[in-house]
Amino acid sequence: MRDLDRLARLAPGGAPDRPLVIDTPPLVDVMATAASCPLCGGSFRLDEHAAETIDGRRLRIARVTCTVCGMPREIYFTLREQLQ
Ligand SMILES: [Zn+2]
Q1: How many angstroms does the Cα of residue 21 sit away from the middle of ligand 1?
Q2: Ligand 1 centroid vs 4 CA: distance in angstroms?
């Protein structure tokens, strides 16, 4: 379980320093609920869509919970325009 959790953090979007790049903020909601749980393959329920600054980067964070096993996860996104 711990290893799988660590793998999830290494995946794109799994940590603040490797966010998924998106074009518009609504894609956060779409992609977060389209992702599947790394532990059980279940789908996520979006609990919160937050905008935060971490280490000087403006990030969008989707806080989700697996609807099957209940594992909470945070998925990090950054807007493409902010990379330029
Ligand atoms: Zn799950």
Answers
A1: 24
A2: 11
